[in-house]
Amino acid sequence: MIRRVFIIATTAILILAVFAGVVSALDTRQPTVVKANLANVRAYAAASQPSGVSYAIDAGELFAGRPGEWRKVDLPAGVSACAVALDSSRPGVVYVGAANELAVYRLDAKGGLLRAPLSNDYVGGVTSLGIDKANRLLFVGTDTAGVFRLRDVGSSMIAGGHTMMNEPILQIAADSVGAGLVFARTPGALYRGDELGMRWSKVDNLGSAPTALAIVNRYPATVYVGTLDRGLLTSQDGLTWSMANDGLRFMPGSRLAVDAIAADPAQLDVLYVATSYLLGSTTVHHSPVGVSMTTDGGATWQPLAAVTTAPVAELLPLAGQTGAVYALTMSSRQPLALGAAPVIADEAPAVSAAPVATVAWTAITAWIVAGLAALALLYALTTGRLAGSAPTTVPLAMRRHSISHR
Length: 406
Known about the structure:
By secondary structure, the chain is α+β, with helices and mostly antiparallel strands. It is 16% helix and 39% strand.
């Protein structure tokens, strides 16, 4: 009876182990999409360290890597991405704003994914993200519903405020050093978020329409605002503004437009600006000047590269590499290498890299258990046959009893 129970139990273990091994063997990953070049960039988040990983939204998909090697990061089916931001205080944490829904997704280094819906009362998409790392706040700009404020508590992202705007939010930025600076830019105005973004007011002392926005987390934190015809303005309190055009060829009577601003997150005094001259009165024409660089926080600027094909729409710096920046223009969203940025061959094709071989310990363990179970079963069956084939010994008393009855 004991031998029978043992055989049954061993057989059950063998079957379960084999099943687990087969399931594990069938669990294959899809090839990772790797691209040498990005072709249709809509958002970019530079790494916080020179050796770190940058993120970009290319044609609605999220990619991680660096020039020459961009690997696709899977998002939930049906999600078209439009905005991305990194939390340098929490390595591996990436926020992605959806273009086709009012929702933000948080990804972490362990593969975790959290969806934070913004509102059920509006239809639209996310246009920009700004992080206040000091207060664990995420500011979300949208195209139809203004600005949302979320608090990231780790297990979830809690809604913490909403301000409706009359125009789409083009850019949103916040400091992360506790200065409480947060700004949102629309096509026609700049708004300052007071009380950590709980209350918003229009900035009306720029003297020109805002065209670009950036905040650098030095001490004290500094706000940079590009304008339509006054060049670059800076502020450390969001109330008073100073011109910072030394080296940008801003001349009396000229109309110098700042088309884009970008800061190197790994070098707080290194920034890039793209400028144009506005020409004409009735019909205004942009005449691109090029891209300039500063290494002293905007006190002085030096020409970096000329861009004559079209005005620059956005600048993508390489973290920690002074003078290395890519440009997106009004006519092309494919990154154009400027300064010390490496040029990637246009003919380099997109490839599908095979999954990296890893040790599947669950599968190995399952098959080891299956092998041991098979040996145990074989032993049990063998000993059972031997026992069954042994000659039967009749006790002496029984033989005598049988003889006495004859």
